[in-house]
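INFO worker-7 received task bundle
INFO bundle size: 2
INFO processing item 0
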Amino acid sequence: MIRRAALVATVAAACIACLLVAMHSGSRDDRMSRVSRDVKRWLLPAPEYNAYNQLVAYPGKRKIAPAPITPRTMVAFVFGQSNSANHGDEKFRAPSPTVTNFWNGKYFAAEDPLLGATGEGGGPWVLLANKVIEAKTFDSVILIAAGVAAAPVEAWTTGGSLNGMLEKRLTEVKDAGLTVTHFLWHQGESNNSTTGAANYDAAMQPVIALTKRYFPQSKFFVAQATLCGDGNVPNVELQKIQLGLSRLPGVFAGPNTDEIGFANRYDGCHLSGRGLEKHAAGWAAAIAAHSE
């Protein structure tokens, strides 16, 4: 009995130690942080995924009651490829229950990784929610994540492999009684080529039209995002096309995340903790510029 109690105490202490270490930066050079992640994966239940490799369950996720929805509630549908999903090198959480992650008809405390997107790391969206609440742009935020790593824009458009998933997710959100106020699109790294850029505008217009069909009053923000990989350079032509989509009704320019250089990308593509801070700050500024 004493041995069993000692074993339980040891495991509990190990879990607490891992959680404390994980609170520090998960930069690529922080070996202790990576060890803590491996230990936690061994001790805790495994994450679960759907057919699109999006997280549907993750250890420690907590269901909570959402804050009342008011005209000052931001309902943000966040999607695109890996830098829109949970592939950052540091995780963040919301200090207040006024920020939630909506998934499968339920609300969860907003903390990385967000349910509904690929990856098990961090992202800019919880940070963004914290920033817009701190700035009093909104009183509460509901995050709906749907990003898929490495997906080109062609996968999202009509006939693409992700188009059905996107429409199903929009239907689920609407059936739950939610009205998306902001679509935040961060994608383009997989289209950083001459042909990828040439097809971008034509592929994006049906994606935007689909979101407007479900939520016609929503604001659709398009980031300028093309940079991924050591030695890669921003695709200026693709940036212009992404920026040019703001000519469409209800579409606005998001941040230019190509300005976040390799010093803030832990593997030459995905963002470090500092990179995610810059990412979130860019989104907060773009949204504030078009808030009513």
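INFO item 0 finished
INFO processing item 1
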Amino acid sequence: MNIDSLEAVRLGGLTQRIRIRGTNAANPVLLLMQQGPGLPIINEVRGYERRLGLERDFTVVYWDQRGTGLSSLPLRRNGRRFEVSQALMVDDTVALLQLLHDRFGAETIIAGFSFGATFAAQAAVRRPDLVAALVATAMDVDIPFADRYTYDFLLTTARQRGNRRAIRQLERMGPHPDTKHFATRARWTANFGGVTANITFNGLLRRLLAGLLRSPDYSIADIARTVAGITASQAALLPELATTDLVRTMPRLEVPIVLAQGRLDRVAPGEAVQRFHDKLAAPSKELVWFEESAHTPQYDEPAKFRELLLSVRAGVLANS
């Protein structure tokens, strides 16, 4: 029996939206946690299924997290400002994992992307009993190191290409951009091939907007709130996340973890992920390199990424 439902769930005292899709409720549950901050994922349901074909083998849960997409927050209600913070994102994740466990009767496989992987790992530290395995893709591990790495890459590339505009903007912002300059750095990182292989910043933006417009789940008002939510989430989360260093703060994880890392990633550098992998204690751990990928292996090498998820599924079923 096909499963396809858009649902409102209460997480952290707020109504948030998930879409659940699959072909057999007995399949393992796979929760997808989007990169960001601020990016939705329910708008990508069709794209994920077209590229990865996951719904035959998993019950897939797409979740617009607090402040994003269909879970975007009004700035104020009854005079009270809604909050978006790292602690609340992790609390919400634990709450959703508990809800899924209660509904499906089994632990959840999480595939987290970028900061989605970071929040997923922090939730797994809190409640390993709710997590069957974690696939952490391009996980943000060490932000101070990543900031310097990205800046050096961008400035070196800009000088090699003689891009005076990029040089001028990069030198003005420095290696640790504030929220106002985050989009500028993201633009140059994408344009220099460090986010998604062979897609520029404008191309990524067009794909986001096209996905929102084509999705049956988003009204025009939802799209407007989604766009506003990206900026608001970044303003709330980026200063707090700037000191993230999982190598130092997360020495152990009580669930199996696979780290999926693009060799060309200029956002979450592989050197930091390698250090995290080498120092982490876990029931099982593996670092899988995607040689032709940047920050988005799920887009750049979808066939290999699908096979990785299927191998994790096989391991979970073998141990159940």
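INFO item 1 finished
INFO post-check item 1: The two ends are 23 Å apart (CA to CA).
INFO post-check item 1: The first strand starts at residue 3 and ends at 11.
INFO worker-7 idle
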